[in-house]
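Quick one: structure for this chain?
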Amino acid sequence: MAIKRYYNANVPIIHHTGLKKHHKIMIGSFTSIVIIYMIINGILLNGLIVKQTLNNNQLSDKLSVLQAETQSKLNQLTDSVMKTNDEISSLGSQIGSIDKEFASLKASTSSDFSGIIEGAIKGVVTIRTDVGQGTGFLINKDGYLVTNAHVLSGGKIVRAITYEQESHDATIIGYDPVIDIALLKIPGEYIELDLADSSKVQIGEKVIAIGNPLGLQFSVSEGIVSAIHRQVPNSIGSYIQTDAALNPGNSGGPLINKEGKVIGINNFKIGGSESLGFALESSYIEKTVNEISMKALNQTLID
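Got it. Here's what it folds into:
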């Protein structure tokens, strides 16, 4: 049996055809161009990255070198500043030493004790009680001071007035009436006076006495050492004889040498005479103060 085929004239017939040759060439060329462009861009970008990396490494190296050089220069500058400070300090010490030697030279070659007095007078105090007054001097920066025991005799209230005119209640640490020494304490910090070695005191050397004669605060009188190791009745100490003027109110004040150190504590003068003053030698001051301090300490421990 034969198969019949029917065709509808209204149904379109689609014919499939391939790309033409020139189309293929154009598409291939465009693709190739894109690929080449991407490769070139990749190469250029990689080159830029490599170059930037190298530049950054070089910059980092330069910064490291610059930092090291800067630190080295700072170290050199610091060393130079420290050396300069040391030289300035050394120069200051030399100047201070020269000033001290100059003041000492002035004191030893003329009557001008101004270089010594300026420093020493700040370590002197006025001692006032309700019955009288005298002088004292600081032997410790913490406010320990020495005066004559007889300056305190009969008094119930003791006050010390400093060179700066500050008035303080004084505490009596102890006293020795035989050798006529009393140790007191006032609050605060002060310029102290050093005790000299009284065994080295020489007859004829110049001295000054600082005190409050007749109520005239912080008066200074000048003289020389007339004699040493004097013995006086009713005392176990040795005394320096001086022609420096001593009057009521000078008791307990320091007798000072040309170096600004205390060689004795002014005790008394011969009544009715001039230029015959006596000061307990500094070695006895030191010995008595130490004994008073130890006695006070032992008493505190017992209490």
